[in-house]
Amino acid sequence: MHLTRKSYGYAIFTLVISLVASVTPAQATYTILGTFPIITTTYGVGSISIVPPTTNSPAPWVFASSNTKVATISGKTISILGTGTSTITASQAAIGAFTARSRSTQLRVNQGTPTVGVFASQSIPITQRTFTIVPPTSNSDGTWSFTSSNANIASVLGTKVTFHSGGVVMIYGVQGGTPNWKSALASMKLTIAAIAPVLGSFGDISIMKDSVSSLTLNPPSSTSGAWWTFTSSNPSVASVLSNIVTPHAFGTTIITATQNAVGDYSSATATMKFTVQGPLPTLGVFPDVTAQMSASPSLTLVAPASTSLGAWSFTSSDPTVASISGNTASLLKPGTTTITASQAPTATFASPTPVSMTLTVVGPPVIGLWADIQKVVKDPDFTLTPPTSTSSGAWTYASSNPLIAEVVDGTVKVKGAGEATITATQSATPIYTQGSAKMTILVFGAIPTIGTFAPIEAIIGDPAIALKPPTSNSNGTWSFSSSDQKVAAVNGSSLLFTGVGTATIFAVQSPAGIYSQSNTVQAQVTVKAKPTPTPTAKPTPTPTAKPTPTAKPTPSPTAKPTVKPTPTPTKSKSPVNKTIKVTATGRVITVVAIGVKALVFINGKPGKVGKNAVKPGIASIVITIDDKVVYRRVFTIK
């Protein structure tokens, strides 16, 4: 069937009527809407979202704006286009059993507040004369206008600033309001850099009190033509009115001349010292002083004599040498410092010119350590290096034993084995006393070649004997000691036999010439008891027979000699095997002591019986028994 537009619409209508007629009508549900509050915003926010009223209908919302010059709507977003009002209508179509409903509210768009950018401060030389203002950035299209806080310094016409004088002004900008934007403010500091005047001298003035009643101040010359004003820092000394200065009392005041800014020139100031003097007092001498630190750590300063009673004050040019408190100088270290004495003015006298003297502080030098030295006989001569010292005084040297180490003009000649003390004396200087230091030179010589020290036998009661030392290629003096004074006592080089038994005699030869102390040698002394005497029997007399001339002579019987009884030998004490033995292997010195209690010293420091670790160099071994040296030897350790 062909339907025209008219007949097509009629057919649909007929169909709907037919459907409605054939369906049982249902009861409609009323759509309930909540409130739709007024919406307020400002221009410039861009867009906002709509919050629709509450509803019990599931139908979608449709929104409309009555004034599209103020706002347009897309979905639930309102785009703000201008200030003013517009009616916003929210509508829900009928859906299902829910009826169609709508609700309206008012949208109010107020003027926005512009966002103004930085209006930066400027500093421009006055010689530029003008300056064009560049307005700060703004999202408003309002027109800017500008004013100056001081039109005498800089005036504004439009955006052009004209300079009249140096100085600082504030430039205020106002951006006018528009239908959509409020007005806005901005300010910037404009510094107009004026030319600094070139000033001449403004010399100090010194006058005698009562010599003039007042005087006129002349300002310094200036490239600026501005007027001058004057002020006094101490009006009690001298006051200033306009350019007239009037003295009042002794003392000093600072006169400040200020030239105002004008035209292209900035302000300027100059100062001078204005002194009102009385008669100067007559001063005595202020002599130089030399003080010893060792005598006292402080010194009372005596001011020079003066016809003025003004108080004195003192200063030190070098507080590290002497510091000042009142009239007391604390002496801190050797040196020199200038002490300046100043006298205050009085009502009668002016302050005199300060006077100075030189304070010399004398003290002992600080001398560093001076290390001992070890040498060997026949070493070459060497020059002494003095210890460190805070003094610059010259050094001289002396030896306690020139036969061992002789010092000539600071050069040491090694001459023999032994020890010598070298004394270094530093001469005094203007600020340091004489100083001294000592050190020991230990000279090792060759070990003498010692012969045999023969053993000794004696019977108790034998007279003392002179000990005969073994042969030696050294001329050193021998000293002896005994291991047991109760058997054999030593007195110098004499040996006394004091008891039966055995003892060990130790012999040591002292250093001499190129030879050092010898190794200790020993010999055993055996002291026996006296033998017991055996009584001798008297012989029996032999009778003599009368001779018979004819008879043969009868031989006379010979008496048998009486045999002497054999004396019973006295048992002597068994000798004790006392032994001291020292060996050096590598860097270990081994000391063996048998039958004695020995003390061991290595380079003057306590060692031990047994193994001793030593460092490379010279190792001097000394062993004592009962506080007597029984062994001494020098080893060279590699």
What would the keywords be for this entry?
638 residues, mainly beta, disordered N terminus
Approximate helicity band: under 10%
What is the overall shape? elongated
The helix count comes to 1
Main sheet attributes: strand count, strand direction, barrel closure: 4 strands, mixed
Beta strands, count: 49
| Percent strand | 35-45%
Mean pLDDT: 87
Please tell me how large the radius of gyration is.
65 Å
For the biggest β-sheet, the strand order reads 1-7-6-3
The secondary-structure class comes to mainly beta
Furnish the topology, listing elements before pairings:
Blueprint: H1 5-22, E1 39-42, E2 47-49, E3 61-65, E4 71-74, E5 77-80, E6 84-92, E7 101-110, E8 122-125, E9 130-132, E10 144-148, E11 154-157, E12 160-163, E13 167-175, E14 184-193, E15 205-208, E16 215-216, E17 228-232, E18 238-241, E19 244-247, E20 251-259, E21 268-277, E22 289-292, E23 298-300, E24 312-316, E25 322-325, E26 328-331, E27 335-343, E28 355-362, E29 373-376, E30 382-383, E31 395-399, E32 405-408, E33 411-414, E34 418-426, E35 435-444, E36 456-459, E37 465-466, E38 478-482, E39 488-491, E40 494-497, E41 501-509, E42 521-528, E43 579-585, E44 588-594, E45 599-602, E46 605-606, E47 610-613, E48 617-625, E49 628-637
Parallel strand pairs: 1-7, 8-14, 15-21, 22-28, 29-35, 36-42
Antiparallel strand pairs: 2-5, 3-6, 4-5, 6-7, 9-12, 10-13, 11-12, 13-14, 16-19, 17-20, 18-19, 20-21, 23-26, 24-27, 25-26, 27-28, 30-33, 31-34, 32-33, 34-35, 37-40, 38-41, 39-40, 41-42, 43-44, 44-47, 45-46, 45-48, 48-49
